[in-house]
Amino acid sequence: MKVVAILGSRNPQGQTARACDALLGGAAEGGGEVERVFLTDVSLERCRQCDERGWGVCRSDGRCVIEDDFAAVCEKLAAADAAVFANPVYFSDLSESLRTFLDRYRRVTLHESAKGRIAGTPAIGVCVAGGGGGGAPAATVRLEGYLAKCGFDVVDMIPVRRQNLEMKLPLLTATGKWLAAGPSS
Fold first, then answer.
1. Residue 185 lies inside a defined structural domain of this protein
2. Is the N or the C terminus of the chain less surrounded, counting Cβ atoms within 10 Å?
3. Where are the beta strands (DSSP E) in 10-137?
């Protein structure tokens, strides 16, 4: 099983990366092949809302006209057996890089040619809040909505607070093992 993790964090040693690494470590222990993609390390532009109605070839062809790294990340997700989306919580919401990616991704997956490539793929969301930590539950709800709209089979959403990260690391590892085993929804 190939598991691709999309991280909206820019810190490869930060709390979000640690949570994601625990989950991916469990998937690897369970026999999965894992890959991390830090969105801040790739070139991603915001959606241009190409035509006068705010759409473009994303709706008609299931692809985006912007020539950046978006298509390559989409290919990684299409080739994956499962996906993990790890989000550092800012203002009880998604990070700017994850929102930028998902805003474009949900548009292209409205087209059957793109949605069919990921439809039913198990996905897990992990939202890690620093500071007071209160925004993690709201961010998980937001992320779950995006993933469901794209066509993923959302099998788990895990809110994490800075204050409970150490306690949740073993849970995340166990969740990764479970994911590598091929969860049923």
1. no
2. C
3. 33-38, 82-89, 122-129
- 139, 9 contact by CB (below 8 A): no
CA 88/CA 85 separation, integer angstroms: 10
**pLDDT tens figures, 79-94:** 999 999 999 999 999 9
Helix (H) or strand (E) holding 26: helix 15-29
Q: Where are the beta strands (DSSP E) in the chain?
A: 2-7, 33-38, 82-89, 122-129, 153-161
Token code pair at residue 111: 């087209």
User: Per-residue pLDDT tens for 5-16?
Assistant: 999 999 999 999
Cα 3 to Cα 32: distance, rounded to the nearest angstrom: 7
Q: Which two tokens stand for residue 161?
A: 């607070």
The pTM of the whole model exceeds 0.85: yes
Q: How many domains does the chain have?
A: 1
Tokens of 135: 């925004």
In this structure, what are the phi and psi dihedrals at residue 91, rounded to the nearest 5 degrees?
A: 55, 40
What would the mean pLDDT of 50-66 be, rounded to a whole number?
89
- pLDDT at residue 113 is higher than 90: no
183 in the Ramachandran plot: left (φ > 0), alpha (ψ -120 to 50) or beta? beta
Residue span of the structural domain in which 140 resides: 2-180
